[in-house]
Please model this.
Amino acid sequence: PAPKLIPALTYAPLPTPLRSSFGALDAPPSSYHGSSTSGAQDSEAYILSIASINGAKELAVATSSPSNAIHIVDAETLRFVRSLNGGGPLGLGAFQSTAGKKGKQAAQAGVGGIQAHVGGVTCLKAYGEKGEGLISCGKEGSVVIWDARSGAAGVKMYASGMGGKARPLLSCDISADGWTVAAGSELQGDDAVITYWDPRNPTATLRSHTSTHSDDVTVVSFAPTSYILPALPSSPSGDLEMSSESQGLSSDKLLLLTGSTDGLLAISDANEEDEDEAVLLTANWGTSVAQAGWVGDQGVWAGSDMETFSTWSAELDPVLDFDIREPGAHTEKAEWVTDYLVTAQSTANSELRVFVGSNEGDISLISTPQPLQKAAPSPTKRKSKSIADTGVAPWCLHTSWTHQHVGVVRALLCDEKNGVVVSGGEDARLHVWRDPCAGRLECAGGEDEDVEMGMDVDDEEEE
Model:
C-alpha cells in the first residue's frame, strides 16, 4: 500500500527561482553560424542530467539528441563556459542566462557545440569530494573521464560488442579511489554486460560480467566506502537470493550496485574475476529498474519504468514498494498530485530525499523519517483502519517548486552545501532554486498529527 502524504508545518510552494537559463538550446538559428537547420534541431533537445563540478563553481549539463552535448555553465550566473569535446560531429547549442544581455551574447557566441557522445549521452556523474572529476558514457560505446577545465576527453574507454561493433552503454560510475570504472550496457544479442576498466590502462578491459543481468543494465553505482556487506545465511528465502560467500566485507572487495530492466537488483564484487563468485546479493523486484542508488550505507532505493518506488535493506530485503503516483496531498495548505519520480538522493545525514514531478512541470520534495523501516502495526483493533494498520508510515511533503518548467522535469541536482536545487527538463530550461530544507528534514505534519506519528485515529462517526 502507498503511504499517506502530509504537508510539513513549514510547507510552502516556491514559484520563483533564484536564477534561470531560458531555452538552453533554443537560441535563434542565426546565432549558430547561420545554420537554420541546426538551430531548429537544438531547440528540440532536453536537459537529461546535471552535475556539480569544480568545487560547485560550475555545472555540467547533458542534453538529448539531436545535440548530444555536455555543456559547462557557471553555477552562479548560468552563463555558458564551454562544451566538452567527445570527438563527434558538430552539434550546436547555447545557454541563454538571466544574467543579462552580455551573458546571453557570450553564451551564443561561445558554443562550439561538439557532441560529447555520438548517438546520445546516457549517464553523467561528478566524482571526488569537490566534484573535481566528471565521467559520462554514451550510445557509441565509450566511457569518458573528462578534463572539465579544458573540455577535453582526458581518458576514453570503449566497450566492444558483437562482431567488433561498439556496445551501447547506459550507465557508468568510478570507484572512490579512481582506479576502477564500471559501465552497464544495452542488451546486445544474448548479453547485457558490466564492463570494468582501470583508467590508468584504458585500452584494455579488466574484466566483463555477462550473466549478472539478462537485459539492459540501467544502473551501476559503487557502494559508499562506509558500507559493510552484512553476514548472511547461505540459504535463500522467497525471491531473495544470497551468496554463501558474502560473510562480511573484506578489504579486497569492491562492491557495486547494479539494476536492470530484467527486474533484478544486484550487489557484486567488482574485483572478482569469476562471475559466479562475484554476485553476492540479488533481489528480484519483478519490474523494470529505471534508476537506483544507495540510502547512506544502510540500504538501497529504486524507481521503475512503471513509476513504482521501493527501498531495500543492506541485505536487499524488500522494505517499501508502492506506486509513487498514489501519495497525494489535498488540504487547504497544500494541493499536490505526483505524476512521476524525478530522482532520489541520499543526504550527508543518510536521509533519503525523494523528488517527484507533475506533468505541468512542478517539482516537490517528499520524504519519510525511516525509509528502510516499515511502520509497526497498531496494537489496537478498530473498525476504522489507520495508516499504522497498513504497515506503511506516512510521508512528508516538504516543499514544491512551481510555475517555471513546462512539461516533464528530467534532471535534478540537490546541492546540500550551498542550499540550492537545480532542475532541468524537456523545455530545455535550467532553474536554480532555494532549498528551504537544507540540513536535516523536519517531518512534523501540519495536519492529521496523530496519523503522522503512526497512531490510530478514531472515525468520529463510529464513536
